[in-house]
Amino acid sequence: MPNGVLAKSLINKSMGQENPKQDQIFQESSPPKRSLRQAIEVISSLISYSLPIKVFAVKWQLIRNKLEELNSSLIAIEDCDSCQNPIVSGMMSAVLASARDCYDLARRCVDLSYSGKLLMQSDLDAMVAKFDRHVRNLSGIFTAGILSQGFAIVVSRPGVNACKDDVRFYVRDLLTRIKIGDLEMKRHALVNLYDVVVEDEKNVKIIVEVGDIVNILVSLLDSMEMELQQDAVKVVAVISGFDSYRSILIGAGIIGPLIRVLESGSEISKEGAARSLQKLTKNSDNAWSVSAYGGVTALLKICASVDSTAELISPACGVLRNLAGVDEIKRFMIEEGAVSTFIKLARSKDEGVQISSIEFLQNIASGDESVRQLVVKEGGIRALVRVFDPKIARSSKPREMALRAIENLCFSSASSISVLMSYGFMDQLLFFLRNGDVSAQELALKAAFRLSGTSEETKKAMGDAGFMSEFVKFLDAKSFEVREMAAVALTSLVSVPKNRKKFVQDDRNVSFLLQLLDQEETNSGSKKLLISILLSLTSCNSGRKQIASSGYLKNIEKLAEAEVSDAKRLVRKLSTNRFRSMLNGIWHS
């Protein structure tokens, strides 16, 4: 009997075609050893059966090459007596299914019963890819050393101080299980892989270097099995936290799969994907990739949805904040209503969402007057003032972010400052100056310092609100920076005549300034600031009188003799007209 006919007969028999009621070769209940033997026989028969095929000769030669590789691997497994290995056992049904499909293609090529050349060529290419995948999977088993250990032996997880080789061997074993194990085995391997990456930063380097593990993780992001997707996302989120490996993830094409997870993954998977993207987009070069895969739209949809959790919204805000640095993407966000969306998020009860949304609004409005005006128009100031409100219980971080945003968005515009004051911002700022802890007071002082350098109307409002007496309290602070801000702010406020009169009405204010001046070392920075304030007060009659009638004039004269900045000017102002007689001596220049 010719070889081709004999091969066909063997294939038909192994396929159960001599008895249509039986197809035992492909039954999952077949014992593992029998399944492996059947696979070897079917592959050998298929190779023989394909030899006489005249059409698509090149394609069939490629298939035969893969079948030969596959058969050699299966025989090696049989020789190792490893057919009971659950990984090997799980693969046999897939190999037999591929063989069945290949036999069908071979039969149609022998009978010339295929419907079209292009379609058949495509089917044959797909078959080459299938067998190539089986070969690579079996190769992975050999690489991991699973066969030589026996299926019952599980590689133990290395200890914290294990050497690199032990960790590498363990990771290779996990990789093999991820590639060719069943669902449960894949999940278990991914969980163990996650434990390895979070245990030690050095392990991340080993994992990235082992085989094609990054590519496998990226492919699992598109898995239809949600559990596998979630586990893969967790590992990716850890790896993306390291600068050194982000380029490897990008090179493996991870952006597209992460966006698809955002669009259709589980809530847990979406959170992990958003965190990964937030880390990956710290490099602005990756912004366009996110945009190209529709990531901006997906992220905006998440932020606008009432169904999204705070754990998802916060990293999604972070990604969009990173992308806002690209002008074209920023414009698209604005057109899609991002400003109103994030102002609503700033009113969220969740502090993480508040912080992320406020950071986004600052970023998108930075250096762009039109966007800044849009934020104000959409109600951004009211939302920020509400976050800053001391009457509402919350931690310091959201308030800190709100105050910085208020400074950046409002202090450059007189109209925005007017809106701020109408919402009670002055009282809030004054509250933290008086009652806040050290860090809150310092932040409030910095804001008040900046505010004091704006318009005349703002200075008057600050004087009426009681800021001057609070600035005086900071003049003897330990920090020179704090003393300097307080002094400059106070100088700015008393430059307004109305504020000067109000300030000197309390004799304690001028007396305290003179006491501090007496305590400071000659030519110290603080002494110069104090003299600057006193110089401003001499523009007011009652202020000059209080200074001139105090017991500190000789000290001021000594400072003038020591060439301390503005001390001479101060003495001259105090020496004129009706105050001349109040001086103990005449200053001669």
From TrEMBL:
Q: Name one Pfam family in it.
A: DUF7032
Q: Where is the U-box domain?
A: 172-433
Q: Which InterPro entries match?
A: ARM-like, ARM-type_fold, ARM_PUB, Armadillo, DUF7032
- The ARM repeats are at 294-338, 337-380
Residues in DUF7032 domain copies: 37-146
SMART domains xrefs = ARM
UniProt keywords (A-Z) are:
Repeat
**What PANTHER family has UniProt attached to this entry?**
ARM REPEAT SUPERFAMILY PROTEIN (PTHR46043:SF5)
This chain's protein is named: ARM REPEAT SUPERFAMILY PROTEIN
Q: What lineage does the source organism belong to?
A: Eukaryota, Viridiplantae, Streptophyta, Embryophyta, Tracheophyta
